Amino acid sequence: MSRTGAQFTLLLCLLICQPLRADQPAQDGFVYLDQILKSARYDVRYAGADNFVGEPIDGYQKSRIILTREAASALAAVEKDVALSGLALKIFDGYRPQRAVDNFRRWASDPQDIRQKARYYPQLDKPALFRDGYIAKHSGHSRGSTVDLTLVESKTGEELDMGSPFDFFGPISHHGTALVSVQQTRNRETLRQAMLRHGFEPYSAEWWHYTLKAEPYPQTYFDFPVQ
């Protein structure tokens, strides 16, 4: 091949391949979940103002969910599992940049900002959010294999009633609580069993929060933005 031909081939490859790479997360080993799951719905709360802080969170530049490749693959198996019962997944959060966790800590340290108290933590004061472990220096989400989610009806997209909304801080959101109805308990258990079958473990204080047991980066907290 001539030098001119080789240069043309290289240029063509760059033009074709670059857009594909541009739609990949900034960190190797991570994927956009909407490129893996087929039927999931998304409500990326921290990319907008509909969350317990009341404003977009640092690091969420786009309304997309990122997970490690391993966690995304396991979640795809969960998706197929629940589809057999006419259900689909609805995802609230996945990978969370460390700068977002820092944002939460600054917010929780400001006693004057209680805009969202009535909706998300009516029975708690802000110091309790630290004491009870809802807000911490680090989050498992920043390791990339933790996901916040619920179940919806496949045909309508209607969320199953879990007894408390996503990110509600309090005992009613705990697994095993007696504060929810029998049907709400069953709905939570449907999600829990599906996640357990495919390698995820629950967090006792939040019915929506699951982490891949065999997470690939158990000691690493990432900070690349969601973009």
From TrEMBL:
Methyltransferase recorded as keyword: no
Cross-referenced SUPFAM superfamilies: Hedgehog/DD-peptidase
Listed transmembrane segments: none
GO biological processes: cell wall organization; proteolysis
Cofactor remark: Binds 1 zinc ion per subunit.
InterPro entries membership: A_A_dipeptidase, Zn_M74/Hedgehog-like
UniProt keyword Cell wall biogenesis/degradation present: yes
Catalysed transformations (reactions): D-alanyl-D-alanine + H2O = 2 D-alanine
Coiled-coil regions listed: none
GO molecular function: D-Ala-D-Ala dipeptidase activity; metallopeptidase activity; zinc ion binding
Cofactor(s) this protein cannot do without: Zn(2+)
Alphabetical list of Pfam families matching this protein: Peptidase_M15
Documented EC number(s): 3.4.13.22
N-terminal signal peptide: 1-22
Binding-site residues, Zn(2+): H141, D148, H209
Key words, A-Z: Cell wall biogenesis/degradation, Dipeptidase, Hydrolase, Metal-binding, Metalloprotease, Protease, Signal, Zinc
Residues of the active site: E206 (proton donor/acceptor)
Site feature location: Transition state stabilizer: R96
Class of this enzyme: hydrolase
Its biological purpose: Catalyzes hydrolysis of the D-alanyl-D-alanine dipeptide.
Family to which the UniProt record says this protein belongs: Belongs to the peptidase M15D family.
PANTHER family assigned to the protein according to its UniProt record, in alphabetical order: D-ALANYL-D-ALANINE DIPEPTIDASE
Protein name as catalogued: D-alanyl-D-alanine dipeptidase
Species per Swiss-Prot/TrEMBL record: Pseudomonas nitroreducens
